C-alpha cells in the first residue's frame, strides 16, 4: 500500500511527488499519456524561473528525473476509477492500488479546432498560450481564433508584440465584455473577421498561411502563427460522481482540499483564476504539505 497516489504526471503532480518522496512517504504517480502533460507540447518555455529558454519536453523530462530520483514510483497507467473509503482504492486499466491519500492532478486541455493539419503544427506555428509563446512572434503576423473574453485578452496582449493580428471569430459579434472588446478594436494593427472559420492550416515545417471561409467565401491569409483561444476543458471526468465541481467541471477546493477527506487537488484541474506552470507547481507543493499533515494526524490519532 502507498501513503499517497498522485493521479497525473504534469508539473503539479510531479512537484507534489518530489515533496512527498523527500518527506519519506511512499508515493506513486500515475500518468495516462505523456510526462509533463500540456507543457510537453510547448516548443519553448521562457517564463519559468531558472531557465532563459527551455523546451516543454526537456522541462518535463527534468521534472521526471527529479521526482524519480527523490524516490517516487512513476507508472504509465490510465486510472479508470477511484473508490473513497478510509483506505483509498485507485483502479487503473492494468492494476488496483491502495493508498492513505490521493492527489488529483489531471490538468486541463486546450480545446482544439479539430483540423487535420492542426496537430502537425502544434509548437511550430499553432499555439494555445499567448503568455508562453507570444514573444516568438514579435513584429510578425498572427491570427487568434475565438471571440470570448479569453480570446480578446490574448489578442490585446499579442497586439502589443506583433505587427499584424487577425482575430477570427465564427459569430457575428464578440462575446467578450464591451470594455475589453473596445480596447481591442482601438488597436490599429488588429483586424477582426466575423462570420469566419479556419478550414486549413498550411506550411512545410511551420505555419505559413491559413485557408478561411468568411461569409461563405474562401480566402487565404498569410500568417506566421495562430493562437487557438476557444476555451479549455477540465480533465475531471474521473471524479464526476466523487468530488464537488463548478459549472465548468473544475474541482472546487479550499486551498487544494476537496470536499472529501484524504483527497486533494492540484494544478489546472482545480477551480482558480490563473493556470500557468508556476501556479501548478505551487499547487503541487501545497497539496503535498496538506497530505503530509493529513497522514501525520491520522498516525497520531
Write the layout of secondary structure elements.
Elements: E1 2-7, H1 11-22, E2 27-30, H2 56-70, E3 73-75, E4 79-83, E5 88-92, E6 96-104, E7 108-110, E8 126-127, H3 130-133, E9 141-145, H4 149-159, E10 164-168, H5 178-185, E11 190-193, E12 196-203, E13 207-214, E14 217-222, E15 225-228, E16 232-234, E17 263-265, H6 277-300
Parallel strand pairs: 1-2, 1-6, 2-3, 6-17, 8-15, 9-10, 9-15, 10-11
Antiparallel strand pairs: 4-5, 5-6, 7-16, 12-13, 13-14
Helix pairs in contact: 1-2, 1-6, 4-5
Question: Which keywords apply here?
Answer:
single chain, 301 residues, alpha/beta, FAD/NAD(P)-binding domain, 2 domains, seven-stranded mixed sheet, five-stranded parallel sheet, 6 helices
* Architecture per CATH nomenclature, i.e. the level-2 architecture of the largest domain: 3-Layer(bba) Sandwich
Question: What is the CATH first-level class name of the largest domain?
Answer: Alpha Beta
Radius of gyration: 21 Å
Quote the distance from N terminus to C terminus. Answer: 20 Å
Mean pLDDT, to the nearest integer, reads 94
Main sheet overview = 7 strands, mixed
Give the helix/strand class. Answer: alpha/beta
Describe the model.
The protein has 301 residues and is an alpha/beta fold. The chain folds into two domains: 2-109 and 232-300, 3-Layer(bba) Sandwich (FAD/NAD(P)-binding domain), CATH 3.50.50; 112-228, FAD/NAD(P)-binding domain. 25% of the residues lie in helices and 28% in strands. The strands form four sheets. Strands 1, 2, 3, 4, 5, 6 and 17 form a seven-stranded mixed beta sheet that branches. A five-stranded parallel beta sheet has the order 8-15-9-10-11, with helices on one face. Helix 1 (11-22) runs parallel beside helix 2 (56-70) and helix 4 (149-159) packs parallel to helix 5. The mean pLDDT is 94.
